[in-house]
Amino acid sequence: MRVQLVVSEGKYQGTIVEIKRDLFLIGSDPACQLRINAPGISRQHCAIVTRTNKVFVRNLGAGEAVVMVNEQPVGAGEEMPLHVNDRLTIGPAKFKVVFKEKQLHQRDAEEWALKALDQAFQHKEDDAETGDPLTQALESRPSSAADAAAQILAQFALQRGVVRGRLRIGEDQGVTIIRFNDIHLVEEAEIQSIKKELLQAIQRPRMRVLLDFKNVRRMSSAAAEMIREVYHLVTGNRGQLALCRLRPELLAGLEEAGLLKLVRYFRDKNAAIQTAQW
Q1: What are the pLDDT digits (tens) for 67-109?
Q2: All structural domains of the chain with their residue ranges
Q3: 155-277 belongs to which CATH class?
Q4: For the segment 168-227, what is each residue's pLDDT rounded down to a tens digit?
Q5: Domains 2-100 and 155-277 share a fold
Q6: Which CATH architecture has domain 2-100?
Q7: Alpha carbon distance 160, 164 (integer Å)
Q8: SS3 letters for 95-157?
Q9: Can you give the pTM of this predicted structure?
């Protein structure tokens, strides 16, 4: 995943800053990866920090150093996670946060697709029963490796989903899979923001929605109530809701809250997708 800061105001509006290091320094010092010569910018003002596929901004300045995410101040020495389309303010400079998925080179995809085609057509009958994405992509029998690669990549992209704010939303075999990007679902303001995005994503009738908690390590009672609200909205639209990949301690918390009497839980995402009725 590539991280970019896009200048959102002023003379350099639209300029893209590529974040190419796990520790990307921003300030007035010539040693910084992004040098900003402007009033209110300290020598090492802040840093964009990437670790375990998460991105944060860290305020490195003294108490007067201005760093804000969506107008929320980041205190000196503190960090705040960054998400897609967040508004990042560094002194007088304003940016929009953009995440870009790394693209697979088409030539590599073609070579891989040629091998995949040979294997898929030899074993198509066996694979058809599994419903794997390769077989689904080959159903129309593409005429060239390039077409095959394009179809296969499109199928995988659909399953992997796209990042929308604090959620990754994809679809697989008629199931809308929503994965939380945040590690902690604890802060009330964060939960309200996530809930807003979540409710917007599940408005259609008769949806099968799978909430994937793979990334989540901590969860508050407010997050549990958010899940309850999602359940009522989905079932009110004659849809189905299920949960998957919860840590044992989180699963115990939801059981105590009575949610597992309402919502079915699966340890494995594929098992949930393959189950016809929740």
Answers
A1: 999 999 999 889 999 998 999 999 999 999 998 766 555 556 5
A2: 2-100, 155-277
A3: alpha beta
A4: 898 888 999 999 988 899 988 889 989 999 999 999 999 999 999 998 999 999 999 999
A5: no
A6: Sandwich (2.60)
A7: 12
A8: EEEEEECCCCCHHHHHHHHHHHHHHHHHCHHHHHCCCCHHHHHCCCCCCCHHHHHHHHHHHHH
A9: 0.52
